[in-house]
Amino acid sequence: ISFSALPKGRRSALVTVVLPTPAPPSSRGRQAQNDLMDLIVARAINLRLAALQPAAPPGKVGMFIENGEQGQHQIMLWDNFAEGRWEPAVAGLRRVTCDLTMSGFTADEWEAAKRGVMADLNHRMADMSKVANVDLAKELSHAVADGRYLIPPDELFRYAQSTLPRINVRSGNTWWRHQWGAGVEHFRVEAPELSKVSDPVASIRRAVNEAIAMPRCKVH
To answer: Which residue spans within the chain are E strands per DSSP?
Structure first.
């Protein structure tokens, strides 16, 4: 658990798990499978976060997966809360990650995520000719540095067409439990009002643990 209480700082609650970047895939098909699963999981979690706060403006809550430059694979969920609302934000993130670990995705949100990924890949495929050469060069250099293939949207779209029917909700649940459970959760809250809290770390821990009843999801 960590915090920031800068007087003019942002207001954001984040929960992350950081892992070593996985070894480069053994084949182009294997990388396409991994990339596709990342896209579906991220879409499914973002759908759940949006459904829990339907009136929230775009970008208030979200989730992303990325490979960092220092050999780190990061999964992050965030909630950019309003003044004084850090405790509900922390509790909400705890409930989402705990529910995903204990119960997994629902069949409906998993299918909706797959449809959304296909629509996004189709859109990216249609816009391939508009990508600037400098952006392509940047993507290629990153792929070479990481030992990965640079898989264009049209190739990933064709791969998705043939494999998505076999990627069921059980696959997504297995992915989540393996990835999220392989690292240590880090809760961070950034809010100017934490400067008035006598023990921010203990207060954040209490907000996390009071959000759920399952011992497995407690933070010690």
So the answer is: 2-4, 12-20, 61-67, 72-79, 185-190
Instruction: Read off the pLDDT of residues 99-127 as tens digits, 9 standing for 90 and up.
Output: 999 999 999 999 999 999 999 999 988 87
Q: How far apart are CA 187 and CA 14, in angstroms?
A: 6
By the 10 Å C-beta count (0-12 exposed, 13-18 middle, 19+ buried), 134 is classed as: exposed
Phi first, then psi: give them for residue 151, nearest 5 degrees.
-95, 115
CA distance 79 to 49: 9
Contact assessment for residue 101 and residue 217, using Cβ atoms and an 8 Å cutoff: yes
Give the integer Cα–Cα distance in Å for 93 and 99.
10
Please provide residue 116's backbone torsions phi and psi, each rounded to the nearest 5 degrees. Answer: -65, -40
Picking from 46, 38, 47, the residue whose alpha carbon sits closest to that of residue 108 is 47
Contact between residue 184 and residue 220 where contact means Cβ atoms under 8 Å apart: no
Which CATH fold would you assign to the domain 2-217? Cytochrome Bc1 Complex; Chain A, domain 1 (3.30.830)
Domain boundaries, the chain: 2-217
